[in-house]
Write a structure and sequence with these properties.
The complex is a heterotrimer of chains A (279), B (158) and C (150). Chain A is an alpha+beta fold. Among the domains of chain A are: 49 residues, Uridine Diphospho-n-acetylenolpyruvylglucosamine Reductase, domain 2 (2-Layer Sandwich); 103 residues, Enolase-like, domain 1. A 5-stranded antiparallel β-sheet of chain A has the order 4-5-10-6-7. Chain A has a 3-stranded parallel β-sheet with strand order 1-3-2, covered by helices on one side. Chain A has a 3-stranded antiparallel β-sheet with strand order 11-12-13, sandwiched between helices. In chain A, helix 4 packs antiparallel against helix 7. Chain B has 158 residues and is of the alpha+beta class. Chain B folds into 2 domains: 76 residues, Ubiquitin-like (UB roll), CATH 3.10.20; 75 residues, [2Fe-2S]-binding domain (DNA polymerase, domain 1), CATH 1.10.150.120. Chain B contains 5 helices and 5 strands, in the order ββαβββαααα. In chain B, a hairpin with a 2-residue loop joins strand 3 and strand 4. Chain C contains 4 helices and 7 strands. In chain C, strand 5 and strand 6 form a beta hairpin. Classes of the chains: A alpha+beta (279), B alpha+beta (158), C alpha+beta (150). Chains in contact: A-B, A-C. Chains A and B meet through helix 2 and helix 5 of A and strand 4 and helix 3 of B.
Chain lengths: 279, 158, 150
């Protein structure tokens, strides 16, 4: 049997997670309750984060950066006008999660904490250079999204820690986009690609999703591609560099081999989205 | 048998107190404890949409919602919208278009469609399909359901 | 789901064979193994726990040695279930030891695993990745037991 606990502050939530050995935080519940219904997870205590004030919502900080609370629902992220230009990729990714109904339930913090490799936020956040704020027994710390996923479903989140917010660099006027290949609209990605044009219009930041434990980004390959976005050979070399770092699974959504073949196609597709918007 | 706990929630405009397991889902509470049966248990995974209800004006999956987290929120099912203009139009057009066969998905379809028409009075056919993409029907092939929603939208706009 | 791999051990085959066939060595090398009990000449009982993300599972396994040819081949069959839960796992395994020109041993293994029930639902793709990872940990532990480096 599971007991539900309702802390009203982050400190209280962290203390409750520390107090019960088998406690688990619950954000929107869209994944955790489904897994519970399938008998995949169980715990003695669920620490519900929905009554903690200030964990939901999107704000622009004084210096122009955008902060998204961990309990912000996908529906709000998908319609947030502050996420424009270089950050539009995140809004697009949010809008492709599951369907309208589930987007009213699931949260960014819950999705990222679960770290499903095929979920949409990880590559989008990686392409935006997001920083996670994590609260735990030792206080609050910040972790780059690029250092966050450590292995399959293993993350930088330690025992008793929760994500409280995501901070994104100030948006600038440049195109960004997200595409995923999925069996049906709203399914998890078979493979996905997030891309944002650099402010100078010469380079891009690119992250591949669903082709390894975490999003794949390669700053060196991005630097080599800088200034050659219109050169198909340079783009192919870039795509190969990312595919070489992929470690996809064989599963119902597609074979590992198929996923590797999707990477260059997705990159060309998203590059095409971006150049259309830029022209 | 697990210990039950009293939960209080607002269901279809009325305050109710119900004894459910501490970690019961809203779907379990609605069907097993309150005998409110318009929400169906299909996949119990949030995929099929048959359990969709409206909380605070927004459609959600009752199978993924814990009853204890509904305290202080306004829960509505098909039963609580019997005087709702949009729902009534949708019901009429579902019948006329042949959008109901076995009926298992219908409650969830109505919830999703009602929310769409409340937000977007004249949706395109594609917008209707997109709004219903989280509701699975195994009988109709969807065309008649989309016809019904478009028909209801047209009638409501007049 | 087929799992296969191989690794080299810088130790003579006879010694590797002896260790591989010693339950007390195996229990210390298999990640998550909580005990091996010998039931009869060819049957063992064991408990193994695995964790994939939020999911923890403990299997009660029966391992039956179907045939062995010392000092190079073991064919075995594993079957088991997850306590009172509905997951059932079974596999057919082949283990081979070959001598390398340098005097070491090449260990290769193949297992054809099937899984049903709650864990089957979660998807075998991710379990294959996990199996590869666990194999890596096993090799490290096994090398340490034999006192050889990688």
């Amino acid at each position: 049997m599971t007991e539900l606990l309702f802390p009203t502050t982050v400190e209280e939530a962290v203390a409750l997670l520390a107090a019960h050995e088998d406690a688990r935080p619950i954000a929107g519940g869209a994944t955790l309750v489904a897994m519970r219904n399938a008998g995949l997870v169980e715990s003695t205590h669920l620490v519900s984060l929905d009554r903690i004030a200030g964990l939901a919502g999107i704000v622009r900080l004084e210096d122009g950066r955008i902060r998204i609370g961990a309990m912000t629902k996908h529906a709000e992220t998908a319609s947030c006008e502050m996420l424009s230009g270089s950050l539009e990729v995140l809004r697009k990714a949010a809008g492709m999660i599951a369907n309208r109904v589930v987007r009213n339930m699931g949260t960014m913090g819950g999705s990222v904490a679960n770290a499903d490799p095929a979920a949409d936020y990880l590559p989008a956040l990686a392409c935006c250079d997001a920083v996670l704020t994590i609260a735990g027994p030792g206080g609050t710390r910040e972790v780059s999204i690029l250092d966050y996923v450590e292995d399959w479903y293993e993350t930088a989140l330690g025992e008793g820690e929760i994500i409280t917010a995501f901070t994104l660099p100030a948006p600038y006027a440049a195109a960004s986009s997200y595409r995923k290949i999925a069996r049906v609209s709203g399914d998890f990605a078979t493979a996905s690609c997030a891309m944002a044009l650099e402010a100078d219009g010469q380079g891009v930041r690119v992250a591949i999703g669903a082709c390894g434990p975490g999003p794949i980004r390669d700053p060196e390959a991005e630097a080599a591609l800088c200034g050659h976005l219109g050169d198909p050979e340079a783009v192919a070399t870039f795509a190969k560099a990312l595919a070489d770092q992929a470690d996809p699974v064989d599963d119902v959504r597609g074979s590992a081999e198929y996923r590797l073949q999707l990477i260059p196609r997705l990159i060309s597709g998203v590059l095409n989205d971006i150049s259309k918007e830029t022209v | 048998m697990a210990k039950k706990m009293l939960h209080s929630l607002t269901l279809n405009g009325e305050e109710v107190e119900v004894a459910s397991a501490p970690e019961a889902t809203l779907l379990e509470t609605l069907r097993e404890d309150l005998r409110v049966l318009s929400s169906k248990r299909g996949c119990n995974q949030g995929v099929c949409g048959a359990c969709t209800v409206i909380i605070d004006g927004k459609p959600v999956r009752s199978c993924l919602t814990l009853t204890a987290r509904c305290e202080g929120h306004d829960v509505r099912t098909v039963e609580g919208l019997s005087d709702d203009r949009i729902l009534n139009a949708l019901q009429k057009h579902m019948v006329e278009a042949g959008g109901v066969q076995c009926g298992f998905c219908t409650g969830g379809m109505l919830m999703s469609a009602r929310n769409l028409l409340a937000e977007v009075p004249r949706p395109s056919r594609d917008a209707v399909k997109s709004a219903l993409s989280g509701n699975i029907c195994r009988c109709t092939g969807y065309r008649t359901i989309v016809d019904a929603v478009c028909g209801a939208a047209e009638e409501l706009a007049q | 789901m087929k799992i296969a791999g191989e690794f080299e051990i810088d130790a003579p085959r006879a010694e590797v064979w002896e260790k591989v066939r010693d339950p007390q060595v195996m229990v210390q090398c298999i990640p998550g193994c909580e005990g091996i009990e010998q039931i009869d000449a060819t049957t063992y009982r064991s408990q193994v726990s695995v964790k994939v993300g939020p999911i923890k599972a403990t299997f009660n396994l029966k391992v039956e040695v179907v045939s062995e040819e010392a000092p190079h081949t073991v064919l075995s069959r594993t079957s088991g279930e997850e306590g009172t839960r509905a997951s059932v796992v079974s596999s057919e395994n082949v283990l081979r030891l070959a001598e390398t020109p340098e005097g070491g041993t090449l260990v290769s293994y193949e297992a054809d695993v099937s899984m049903t029930g709650r864990l089957g639902k979660f998807g075998l793709g991710i379990f294959r990745k996990k199996a590869d990872q666990l194999a890596g940990v096993f090799v490290e532990n096994f090398r340490a037991k034999l006192g050889v480096s990688a």
